[in-house]
Amino acid sequence: MAFRAAPLAIAPKAVEDYDPNPQYSYGYDIQDSLTGDSKSQSETRNGDVVQGSYSLVDPDGLRRTVDYTADPVNGFNAVVRREPLAVKVVHAPAPVAYAAAPQIARVSYAAAPSVAYPTPIGYSAAPVVAKIAYSSPAVSYHF
C-alpha cells in the first residue's frame, strides 16, 4: 500500500495598494465660548512632503502656533510662535451641584429578643427481636 501526501493549499498573496504619490488634506477649528477652548489644526500632504500648522491657547492666555514641514531631504522642522490674544480668555468654572448634608439617624440598640423553643422530643426505635427457631431436618428412610 502506498501513501501520498495531500497537496498543500497555498493562499493567494494579497496585493497591497501602493500609491507612489500619496495626497491628503484635513483641518479643524474649535472655538468654544462656554469653556474658552480654542484650537485648530490643518495639514496637507503631497507625495513625501507634509506641511501643516496647529494652534491652541496656553493656560497663561497666550496663543501658541506651530507651523511645521516634513520632507525626505530636510526632515521635520517646526517654528513656534506665541502671541497675546486680543481678548483675555476667561475659563468658566464647571457648575457645582449643592446638596443638603445628610441627616444622621439616631439608632438605638437593644438586646435581641429571647425566643423560647420547645424541648425536642426524643424518639428511639423499639428494639427488634427476631426469634429464630432451629430444628434438625426430618430424616426418614424408606425401603
What does this structure look like?
With 143 residues, the protein is an all-beta fold. The chain has a domain at 23-84. Helix content is 0%, strand content 34%. Strands 1-2-3-4-5 form a 5-stranded antiparallel sheet, with no helix packed on it. Strand 2 and strand 3 (49-57) form a beta hairpin. The protein is flat. The two termini are 81 Å apart. The model has no long low-confidence stretch (mean pLDDT 83). InterPro entries: CHIT_BIND_RR_consensus (IPR031311), Insect_cuticle (IPR000618), Insect_Cuticle_Struc_Prot (IPR051217). It holds the Pfam family Chitin_bind_4.
The percent range for strand residues is: 25-35%
N-to-C SSE string, H for helix and E for strand: EEEEE
Residue-averaged pLDDT, rounded?
Answer: 83
Structural class: mainly beta
* Rg of Cα set: 48 Å
What's the total count of β strands? 5
Q: Residue ranges: pLDDT <50 for 5 or more in a row? A: none
Distance between the termini: 81 Å
Strand order of the largest sheet: 1-2-3-4-5
Note the total helix count: 0
Indicate the topology.
Layout: E1 23-32, E2 37-46, E3 49-57, E4 62-71, E5 75-84
Antiparallel strand pairs: 1-2, 2-3, 3-4, 4-5
What are its keywords?
Cuticle protein, five-stranded antiparallel β-sheet, 143 residues, cuticle, 0% helix, CHIT_BIND_RR_consensus, flat, Insect_cuticle
